[in-house]
Amino acid sequence: GAGVSQSPSNKVTEKGKDVELRCDPISGHTALYWYRQSLGQGLEFLIYFQGNSAPDKSGLPSDRFSAERTGGSVSTLTIQRTQQEDSAVYLCASSLVPAGDYNEQFFGPGTRLTVL
Amino acid sequence: KQEVTQIPAALSVPEGENLVLNCSFTDSAIYNLQWFRQDPGKGLTSLLLIQSSQREQTSGRLNASLDKSSGRSTLYIAASQPGDSATYLCAVNTGGFKTIFGAGTRLFVKA
User: Fold this and answer.
1) Is the pLDDT of residue A104 over 90?
2) B49, B99, B105: best to mutate for the A interface, most A CBs within 10 A
3) Cα gap B6→B28, rounded to integer Å
4) If you count Cβ atoms within 10 Å of the first and of the last residue's Cβ in chain B, which end, N or C, has fewer?
5) pLDDT-derived band of residue A60, with 50, 70 and 90 as boundaries?
6) CA of A17, closest CA in chain B: separation in Å?
7) Exposure letters B68-96 (e unless 16+ CB within 10 A, then b)
């Protein structure tokens, strides 16, 4: 079916506001990943969900960042009290197999967040 | 700590040229290596995935090789076209969900 989708595609917000970014993974994919790509930088891992297990939040940069995944499908990344350094492209990926040789990741188009 | 390096950072070639993009990693204990393409303002498109037990994968004009012992992978693009212009990223899976990305090579193919 369809690939990974993300919304919104662009988000401009004022410093201090909260934002929510949405990711809809490929149907049937149990693993879901959030990454951040800042201008001129590589991809930075944020958080990982696998099935109904507790997420791995080791990549979240601060406690202003949180994420949830409802029903093992759609995920929402929330950034509270946004700062200008949060400006980046937030990418979501999913994979059918969470681990091992063949956990090919498929990426969404990303959400470009600009904090003024 | 696994580190992934891509050389060159940028590359400009005339249309039709064959080219090689390089990716190196510091820890050979990997599960797989994946090559992606990223167009400006877009997400990543998976090009090839090489499992740890494999030496190469091919898709159309693309061929990716993997040498775990030396910590290297190359992406070979044959007969380059302007439509190949993009940033190419390699990513190493070190176990479970942990994937380390290189900073990418920006490729420009001139018509």
Assistant:
1) no
2) B99
3) 16
4) N
5) very high
6) 24
7) beebebbbebeebeeebbbbbbbbbbbee
